Amino acid sequence: MNLPSNQPPSPALLQILQDLASGQTDVEAAAESIQASSIGSAADMQTVPGATVDLGRLARCGFGEVIYGEGKSTDLMTQIVQTQVAVGQGCLITRIDATAAAQLRRVFENTRYNPSARTLRIGCGDENLDPIGVEGHSTHVAVVTAGSTDAHVAEEAAETLAWMGVACERIDDIGVAGPQRLLAAVPRLRAAAAIVVVAGMEGALPAALAGHVATPVIAVPASTGYGANFAGLTPLMGMLTSCAANVAVVNIDAGFKGGYFAGLIASGIANAKSEAASAEEA
Predict the structure, then answer these.
(1) pLDDT score recorded for residue 39
(2) CA-CA distance, 1 to 100, in Å (whole number)?
(3) 102: how many CB neighbours lie within 10 A of its CB?
(4) Which segments in the chain show pLDDT lower than 70?
(5) CA–CA separation, 172 vs 189, rounded Å?
(6) How many angstroms separate the CA atoms of 201 and 113, rounded?
(7) Of 73, 108, 170, 280, whose CA is between 20 and 30 Å from 226?
(8) In this predicted structure, what is the pLDDT of residue 41?
(9) Are 192 and 171 in contact (CB under 8 A)?
(10) Which residues lie below 8 Å from residue 53, measured CB to CB, with a gap of 6+?
(11) CATH class of the structural domain 140-269
(12) Per DSSP, which regions of 37-164 are E strands?
């Protein structure tokens, strides 16, 4: 799990501080240079035909740029991935169809395609792209579905977490139609640093679940359901008006957004634990 605070100072920043210490620049000029470097520079971007690849996002935000595959040509996605891999950044492509995924897998050796999630991950070198289980990890995210038909959205969240290096536990089909299933899962849910809950129909599960945990709950409305579900609008409105204070909501079927949000929470906690342990050892 990578956050900017855990990364060593960039050579550009070190040079600015060295120039300041040696008197080759003044405080105002150094401050301007630091501000410019934190926002990003032209060196952090690389242009390919049809796209400007943000290579500096990893340093600024802790995780690299994700490729939204729908509507992009295979050639364009290939060029973007080649640009990222060339600087040692693993890639995640969301909403990619099977044909495009197959074509990219012929170009890149180390890949993981999830047809349910419609995601493709491309690793650098022999990077392990398998999902990360909770065993041996003190911090993880739970990804929960209300019903089995919500699985494709949950899969997108789980693949996102794996790309972020965050351990994940799946808990499936515990919707409010069978409340005993939710109650049985509460001990496992309480162990998670954050919980992604995917629910269609009326979208009641996130609020029902949130009342059992002292944990951020990221609600993902799903387009699963009959007519009055309105392709996910009904659960979206219900989740947005939830009485549970620990529920935040992302867009309809947005497994990537739910997973990413939860991954940031878990990464922050894991990094804080690591820094605290290092401080105790010192």
Answers:
(1) 54
(2) 29
(3) 13
(4) 1-12, 34-43, 282
(5) 12
(6) 28
(7) 170
(8) 60
(9) no
(10) 45, 46, 47, 65, 80, 83, 84
(11) alpha beta
(12) 45-48, 51-54, 67-68, 91-94, 111-114, 119-122, 140-145
Q: What is the pLDDT of residue 6?
A: 47
Distance of alpha carbon 37 from alpha carbon 248, whole angstroms: 32
HEC-encoded secondary structure of 158-207: HHHHHHHCCEEEEECCCCCCCHHHHHHHHHHHHCCCEEEEEECCCCCHHH
* pLDDT value for 156: 98
Burial bucket for residue 181 (CB in 10 Å: 0-12, 13-18, 19+) = middle
Q: Which long-range contacts (CB under 8 A, 24 or more apart) does 99-103 make?
A: 100/69, 100/74, 103/74, 103/78
The structure's pTM equals 0.84
Q: Where are the domains of the chain?
A: 44-122, 140-269
- Residue 47 backbone dihedrals phi, psi, to 5 degrees: -95, 130
Q: Which of 57, 255, 269, 55 is nearest to 159 (CA)?
A: 255
Burial class (CB in 10 A: 0-12, 13-18, 19+), 195: buried
The values of phi and psi at residue 6, to 5°, are: -90, -5
- Measure the CA–CA gap between 86 and 181, rounded to whole angstroms: 47
pLDDT of residue 16: 83
Within 10 A of 62 (CB to CB), how many other CB atoms are there? 20
Q: In this predicted structure, what is the pLDDT of residue 3?
A: 46
